[in-house]
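**Backbone description:**
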Amino acid sequence: MNSYSIADATKPYTEYDMIRDHTELPELPNFRTQLLYAFLNKSPAAGQQSELYALVASLAQMGLDTHDLVAETNDRKEKKEARSRQLKVLAGDYFSSRFYQLLAQAGQVEMTGHMATAICEVNRLKMNMYTRIRQWKMTADEYMQQAVSIKMQLFLTFSRLLEGMKPNSWPDMLHGYTSCEVLLDELRRIERGNDLRSGWAFWHLLQIGTKEEKKQLKNGESDPGKLRTLLHKYNVRATLLQMLDAQFNQLSDKIRQFDSDKLAGELHRIGDPFARAIAASRALEEV
């Protein structure tokens, strides 16, 4: 199974007309899933199950991410919005049920328990993060650390199968790729110009802005236009780009240390979107 077929393998479980026509789904966790498959495929302890584990990890993460899209309140009573909200809940439950089913059919009872434990830990980390956000105790650095930790957690389940490959290589590489993924997501959030109040940039502005700007941000008085003005004023996009560039350089250095040229080549290929995003952003700044 290559990077294309991992995504292709999820289609029978994710591509339904009812869901596609009435609500949106999150993107597949491609970076983490491809990385997991690359490592599992080189592990004597997991090689025969690499395709299964990559598939169930993708479905389990899709279930978590789909539930994250459910609005906190149900204020909008329009039929279309209500149906979309209901389908997100049902779709998230469905993805979770299918990963359980696939593991059960393969007799992977122990792995089912490990993944269930990881899902509980993901939800615990999310609750801690949401609590700190509501209490205004979050910093930009802490936001980044917690966002990476939440995205990593489910995939750390497979660490026990990868211990023999190279000491600590799996958690370390997972952290590096996930950090790049979060930074790239934050850059794209700025480029889209929506949902700006829930990302790293918001907490960064809350730390470096003037007293009046911080007051406006906390009181929710800054409309998207004003937020974009602050992003430009403090050159937030360039800061994120520098962070991504530095993280990707660290990741590339670690990849070059692997003994397996084939694995190193696969890891470089998985990281290509980060390199392209950095190059494209630099070219845009030079225009």
